[in-house]
């Protein structure tokens, strides 16, 4: 593909992402599948352009315009320092190049050129979140948000039901994929370079699963042991559920449920591939109560719906989709889930609250309110502490609080 054709492809992908219906990585992946003529270097260059725009979308829109074409122009000028004539040439309309710039776009380009040469800020986030983010990170704000704005590595969780970490690393190396142990998770590998993991035999045989190291640590913080009764109350597609099954060595019982039946339906084939036999999917009850499990669970995991602000490295489009109303709605949902989960925990058992958010409103504020309303629960320490972040741990941003129910 020519450089101009790559620009046209990036604009096409950003247009679909801007509709706000699908995650960016799904859109990028689907574009690659439907455009087989694009080689690996082409797909990589297009993907890098798309994510560069998403990470700097607020700055680029403020500097010029928020149409996909203008955002890509802003990346060419502000992100790469390209000259005006070079940008105009890329938008020639010839062959597979984007259509020529109209008068309004020429004016936008003039504005961008006037702003070129200035250093971009280290990060770009919605203004309404800055107060919360400052509260979360304090003096580390610049470092923390800059780290959340950088691309994330590819981490794998080793399925210890089938293989050790060392054996998995050897199998991947034999397939031409070099890895190194994750620095904090004892069951993780970090991939060196760019590889399609889901196409490997190691993945197809259930030996490894793509999973951020922070997510692995969150699953390990549940501290599930063989023989326990565990409820994963917001299981989604079951990534942490499978990690817990491995930690329990297929002994005991894990109940997996979610309000989204479609996502929960993806768990069955993943269970089969992983060789996990102690997971029982449960439909979400209409009254949101699980009376049959009252007081019977050694562990209840609440990996609650949240803003996803801790995963901006992987999903930068989420920064621009979340609104203040969304945060208010999410915090109400989080409070309701905590309230529903509390009676399910047996005395001496633990309720583990997890978000992939860095916002105190979704994290500390929810736990403080819960503990005030439930004096029979008390904080229980976790090995990693309550917060993970890319600037401190090299992981996505996670909040983890383990709360133990006191015996009568």
From TrEMBL:
SUPFAM superfamilies: S-adenosyl-L-methionine-dependent methyltransferases. Residues 144-406 form the SAM-dependent MTase RsmB/NOP-type domain. Signal peptide: none annotated. The keyword Ligase does not apply. The keyword Lyase does not apply. InterPro entries: MeTrfase_RsmB-F_NOP2_cat (IPR049560), MeTrfase_RsmB-F_NOP2_dom (IPR001678), RCMT (IPR023267), RsmB-like_ferredoxin (IPR054728), SAM-dependent_MTases_sf (IPR029063). One of its GO terms (biological process) is RNA methylation. It holds the Pfam family RsmF-B_ferredox. Keywords: Methyltransferase, RNA-binding, S-adenosyl-L-methionine, Transferase. The active site is at 356 (nucleophile). S-adenosyl-L-methionine binds at residues 258, 303. One of its GO terms (molecular function) is RNA binding. Belongs to the class I-like SAM-binding methyltransferase superfamily. RsmB/NOP family. This is MFS transporter.
